[in-house]
Design a protein that fits this description.
mainly alpha; Ferritin; 2 domains
């Protein structure tokens, strides 16, 4: 009887231990599963969120966010070569310009217009449009210099360069302002219209500065 009781007690203790172990494992499994789910969720969040944020962001920067129309495309396609010619004119100032204010203005033009060219190229790429349109080289656009104008500027030096540069850049800027005002009126894309606002504001101010320079040269 005692042996039977002892065996029964051992069996009960063993069963209890097995049951306790099973419960403990189940609890750990549930805990690990929950932890794994939480961790997996966090991991997914870290992986997905940045790509979800970065990809649209990159696309938005490339194509300029929001809707666009033909006027926006034409504005970028025409303003790129227009800006490029302004940079060519600015480069001619190296070793030719004499007036300190002209030199400062040249630096300002280079600082502003090269980044704007890169922005507009990125927009057109994002929009799936070519950088150049049917208008070709752009020499028919308002304010663009002829080959002769550029040769005359390159041949000048000192005060003669400063005067020629100011005269030609006034006409060039006036053309850019006219194009930007067309974009303000007819464009649809907010980012492109914002750049048009900047062009009107900055280049109108530079035209006023150039006129002041001409008055004293």
């Amino acid at each position: 009887m005692r042996a039977f009781t002892h065996r029964t007690a051992r069996k009960s203790a063993l069963a209890g231990a097995v049951t306790a172990t099973a419960l403990l494992l189940a609890a750990c499994g549930a805990e690990d599963g929950t932890s794994g789910m939480d961790h997996g969720g966090a991991s997914t969040s870290v992986t997905v969120s940045p790509s979800a944020t970065t990809t649209p962001g990159a696309g938005a920067e490339a194509g300029a966010p929001g809707a666009f129309n033909d006027a926006d495309v034409m504005f970028a396609q025409m303003m790129i070569p227009h800006h490029q010619q302004a940079l060519e004119m600015a480069k001619l100032a190296d070793g030719r310009a004499e007036d300190p204010e002209v030199k400062k203005l040249v630096a300002a033009i280079e600082r502003a217009q090269d980044p704007e060219i890169q922005k507009m190229k990125a927009w057109l790429k994002g929009w799936g449009k070519p950088e150049s349109a049917a208008h070709g080289s752009g020499h028919g656009m308002s304010g663009m210099m002829s080959d002769q104008d550029m040769q005359d500027l390159a041949a000048a030096k000192g005060k003669a360069f400063d005067r020629t540069f100011a005269e030609l850049m006034i006409a060039h800027h006036d053309g850019a302002v006219a194009m930007a005002k067309d974009e303000q009126k007819n464009g649809r894309n907010a980012t492109a219209r914002k750049l048009a606002d900047d062009v009107v504001r900055t280049q109108s101010a530079e035209v006023a500065q150039l006129r002041t320079i001409l008055d004293r040269l």
